[in-house]
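Quarterly update, task 2.4: uracil-bound model.
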Amino acid sequence: MSSDSAGRHSVAPKRLAHKRKDSTRSTSLRASASRPGKAQLHILDHPLPAAAVSILRAKTTMPDLFRRHLQEISVLLFLEAARTWETKIIRVETPLAPCAGAMLPKPIVLVPILRAGLGMLDGIQRAAPDAAIGHVGLYRDAETLRPVSYYERVPVNVAAAQVLLLDPMLATGNTACEAASILKAQGGRNIQFLCVLACTAGVQQFQTEHPDVPIIAAAIDPELNDHGYIVPGLGDAGDRYFGTG
Ligand code: URA
């Protein structure tokens, strides 16, 4: 993997078929400079999310700690996503003097993919309390690994909004691609996808199907197993968050 001066990464397709024997080692994806037409991949490069992701990964981490750290990472992903947002300059009167301030002209819409995406909502909602919330319910068919939609409810202002699609895991990419397609079909135009762990195959699939939707992730892992789980990953994010594992 390589990154441009803004820290944007893209995955080189040639390396995606390569499987590491030692999945405990960190990924060594080669990235090329950002190519036009390919969705940007932003990986958080910071000690706080790196430490929090390690806590999520540990199999000994109990749901209370898992929830807390998933929320913390989600806020950091949200901050990174918002880095590029347009702001409007406004005039603010402080108690002492007028000064220039900023406001976000676009409404924010958060769309967790049920169910694990709900785990990213609490923290981001605290940072953006006026955000509208949509929901997309998709489950993966255990055999085909294809997403099946069972619930869609998207705020009416989605076309004008900055939309954040939330799912902790970008695994095969099928679910995220389907959810992004649902948002676009409902009018969503400014969409960003936030995940904790991205897998190289999922990144490639998403970048191919939605080259206009940036991916913001806390870490990237090299492999998927035969069940579509990210390796080394963190297991089933929904089960770990909700304590249903
Ligand atoms: N969903 C999960 O919860 N974990 C994975 O590894 C892949 C998909």
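Highlight for this quarter: The chain has one domain: 36-242.
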